[in-house]
Amino acid sequence: MSNNSNTSGTSRSIIIIGILFFIFGFVTWLNSVLIPYLKTANELNNFQSFFVAFASYISYFVMAIPSAKVLEKTGFKKGMGLGLIVMAVGALIFIPAAASRTYALFLTGLFVQGTGLALLQSAANPYITVLGPIESAAKRISIMGICNKVAGILAPLTIGAILLKNMDQVEAKLSTLTGAEREAELDLLSSRVEMPYIVMAIVLVGLAVLIYFSSLPEIETDKEDESLAEANKNKTSVFQFPNLLLGTLAMFLYVGVEVIAGDTVITYAKDGQGIPSEAALQFTSYTLAAMIVGYLIGTVTIPKYISQAKALRISGILGILLGLAAIFTDGFVSVLCISMLGLANAVVFPAIWPLALDGLGRFTKIASSFLIMAIAGGAIVPLAYGSLADSFGLQQAYWVVIPCYLYILFFAVKGYKIR
């Protein structure tokens, strides 16, 4: 009876955390819609519009350590609720931003949302990691990944349908207008964002209330079992755990290549390989679909058939092969190889977390903040791709992913074992 009760409680907890990962995905993947929308509504160039992604991802780097300190005070459960409230505040900042068409205010809203996400992820990722046996953590995080990527598919379809409705006609009309008429049209376009983000804020507050009154157990990571306490008795800092530090770099590079696979593929298809826009728009969906397939494979195979480390090794090798194939082939096949990086990327995040946190014990909360900080790779590594693309072309710029996957392979073979 007790075992059934524990299993039921764990299942409920996984469902609740799954909802949170859905929220991560929905808010994060909205960037693909906000970039073209704000570019038109705020009359931006390409470089300026890229700050949408930068503001979102750099918040993880800035706020991860403060998030860990907050979690030390609140615990995981209250920390998750607080993260949702902070995200709701970020969503509400979009209202005055839209009313005034102030791009800096939009970026502030995105940064605040990113702050909430950093707090939420600092709590939810280690929570799901230690919710059950460490050997099956990648399987649980893979389930979370499915929730995340399903949201990523739905976000552009729902919010995108509102923000980007008839955008080609709007842009054509704007090109014919000047003065007060043009300003009025831009104000009308900017107002589209208000209702979706009001609804988003209400949903986030509702989820915060749900979390607060839920049956989620508080998991104590500060206490260690006797063997772990003995092993860590002379440890005074997370910097004494090489597997964490090496895992943090692996996470930084991984998030970078994940963002490259999702955010560059449409431009590469259209401008690099001459594929028509209508067809090019489908490739990001292929990337997300490939990730979902990878998560499903991970859910079935880990740890029953392969270990987390072996799954990570396979991912690194597959990433290298697909990256090289994209560079040395042309047309649809080359672009499809970039989308298929989604398959290579799928279990990297789920596998790095338990391998990097294994043996951390009382240092788990602060250690998890290092991995959250590493999400800033999504702000930095794509800049390297963009710089290479300007110098050597869109296709040759994909060489940047090869050393990233080589390092991930190193971590999977040797790095995680270094204690």
Automatic annotation (TrEMBL):
Keyword Signal listed: no
Ranges where the Major facilitator superfamily (MFS) profile domain occurs: 13-419
Protein origin, superkingdom: Bacteria
Topological relation to the membrane, as annotated: Multi-pass membrane protein
GO cellular component, one term: plasma membrane
CDD domains on file: MFS_FucP_like (cd17394)
Keywords assigned by UniProt, alphabetized: Cell membrane, Membrane, Transmembrane, Transmembrane helix
One GO biological process term: D-glucose transmembrane transport
Gene3D superfamilies from the UniProt entry: MFS general substrate transporter like domains
PANTHER family assigned to the protein according to its UniProt record, in alphabetical order: L-FUCOSE-PROTON SYMPORTER, N-ACETYL GLUCOSAMINE TRANSPORTER NAGP
Role played: Intake of glucose and galactose.
Official protein name in the record: Glucose/galactose MFS transporter
Species of the source: Zunongwangia profunda
